[in-house]
Structures are given as structure tokens and as C-alpha cells.
Recover the amino acids of this structure.
């Protein structure tokens, strides 16, 4: 069995991540004192009978956070498998979320003289010991609740299928490259439907855009070459016991070419394997 240590910035979605695991039968404990990690790990077989893992939430409220490295060493000495999942978001996004919900940051309850911005900065520093060692990082700056739940289950490996899950992701380079991906393919060299006035307001999901792109030789060539590349290398990642693989396609705005390519790739691989997901970041 494996111990999942779930942590992250306040407002980024740590509680939602725990709830997502709990919904899949994982035994979850929130705000666990780090000194109890070895005890919980040793009791995992009795705590969880329906899931191969137990999850514990650790955040900046933990008064013994600075002692975490030594407790992680104890887990290693006892040969207890563990994985750190860290949920984060841009500071501007977190400030907006706290403003919209009118909730107080947990650290401001402990230190009332802190401003929200100061609390977020202090929290990042306090949790750096976790974020730097995290095997799984999820940035929720542009992710909604439903997408976060899917990403958590995907990356922890709790999908119903035994095959390694694949997530195909479209995005726009003008809004930043996603960080939690394994492959990034740039499709900005392909013909751009944006310059066709009748296609500009549509997306890569619309039949008119799909017809336009499928008729382009460059698009067909890139799709064939990348499909062959992925068919060659996905089995190598599976053989390396990877729990998931995220493959991103980016164009300028994330509306046409990247969306089309993700739709085509997801459909192609869904015909041959289970556990294929797709997400269009900018369309969300």
C-alpha cells in the first residue's frame, strides 16, 4: 500500500483533492500532525480495505511542519511507500478566490497582523519542504472543481481501468505553457483557422473548423507523425510503471488547432485503449 501526502496552498484546492480521493474509497485524514505519519503508515492495512492507498492532508496550520524531513526519512527507513501531491495556484488567482469567498486565510487567524498577501507568501515558504519534494504537482490557476477531481484521480492512479491513463490537453501559448505535463507539442506552424473570417468565432470542436483542418496536408502529416511517435513511446512509459501520462498540444490562443488535434488524438487512442481523457484548458 502507499501513503499519499496531500498538501498545497490555501485556496488552491487541497480539501477538494482529499474529497476526490475519499470519493474513490481512499481513507483520508486531514490536518495530520507530521509526527503521526509513521504511525498512520504502519496502520494502513487496517485503515483501508477498498483502496491501495491512504491519504493524509498536511498544511501550513501544522505546528511541527519543520520536522517533516526527519519523519519522511523514517518512512524510507521502514520501507513505507509514500508520494507527495501538492496543489498550487498563482498568487493573483488565490487573492481573487479569497476576495470572492470572503474567507480568511488560515495563517491570518494565527497571526492577525498579517495581510492576505503576506500570509500567502509566508505559506509558500512554510510549505516549500513539501512542494520541492512533490512527485505530483497540480496547478489549479485555470482549473475548475470537476477538472481538479479528474486530475487528482488520474495522477494518483485511481482510474477504473488498469491501463495507464492518458490525458490529452489543449492550451494557448499566449496564456502560458502548462507545467504539469509530460509532452508539449507546438502546433502553431499549422494553418490557422483564425485568419478565416467565417471560422474565427468557432473552435476546433466545430465541424466547419474540423473540415478546414482535416483538408490541410500539413495537419494530416503532423497528426500521423505524432500518432506514430506516441504509439512507439507510450508502451515504454507503461513499462516504467508510470501511473499516468499528460500530452499537451498548444497553439496561439488554444481555440482551433490545439483543440482539433486533441480531439483527434483522443478519439484515435480511445479506439485502442481505455482510460483516455481530454481537456481543453482555454475552452473551460
Amino acid at each position: 500500500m502507499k501513503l499519499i501526502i496531500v498538501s498545497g496552498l490555501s485556496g488552491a484546492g487541497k480539501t477538494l483533492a482529499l474529497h476526490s480521493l475519499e470519493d474513490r474509497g481512499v481513507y483520508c485524514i486531514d490536518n495530520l500532525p507530521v509526527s503521526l505519519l509513521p504511525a498512520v503508515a504502519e496502520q494502513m492495512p487496517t485503515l483501508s480495505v477498498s483502496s491501495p492507498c491512504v491519504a493524509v492532508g498536511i498544511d501550513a496550520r501544522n505546528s511541527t511542519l519543520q520536522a517533516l524531513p526527519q519523519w519522511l526519512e523514517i518512512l524510507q527507513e521502514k520501507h513505507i511507500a509514500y508520494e507527495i501531491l501538492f496543489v498550487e495556484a498563482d498568487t493573483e488567482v488565490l487573492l481573487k478566490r479569497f476576495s470572492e469567498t470572503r474567507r480568511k486565510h488560515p495563517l491570518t487567524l494565527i497571526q492577525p497582523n498579517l495581510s492576505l498577501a503576506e500570509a500567502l507568501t509566508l505559506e509558500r515558504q512554510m510549505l516549500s519542504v513539501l512542494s520541492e519534494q512533490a512527485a505530483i504537482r497540480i496547478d489549479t490557476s485555470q482549473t475548475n472543481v470537476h477538472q481538479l477531481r479528474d486530475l487528482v484521480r488520474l495522477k494518483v492512479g485511481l482510474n477504473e481501468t488498469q491501463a495507464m491513463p492518458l490525458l490529452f490537453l489543449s492550451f494557448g501559448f499566449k496564456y502560458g505553457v502548462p507545467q504539469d505535463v509530460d509532452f508539449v507539442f507546438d502546433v502553431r506552424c499549422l494553418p490557422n483557422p483564425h485568419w478565416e473570417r467565417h471560422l474565427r468565432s468557432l473552435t476546433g470542436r466545430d465541424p466547419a473548423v474540423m473540415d478546414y483542418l482535416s483538408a490541410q496536408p500539413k495537419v494530416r502529416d503532423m497528426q500521423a507523425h505524432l500518432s506514430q511517435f506516441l504509439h512507439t513511446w507510450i508502451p515504454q512509459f507503461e513499462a516504467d510503471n508510470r501511473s499516468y501520462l499528460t500530452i499537451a498540444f498548444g497553439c496561439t490562443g488554444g481555440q482551433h488547432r490545439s483543440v482539433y488535434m486533441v480531439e483527434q488524438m483522443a478519439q484515435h487512442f480511445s479506439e485502442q485503449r481505455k482510460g483516455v481523457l481530454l481537456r481543453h484548458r482555454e475552452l473551460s
About this structure: The beta strands are 2-8, 27-29, 53-57, 81-88, 136-139, 166-172, 183-186, 245-251, 276-280. The mean pLDDT is 90. The two ends are 35 Å apart (CA to CA).
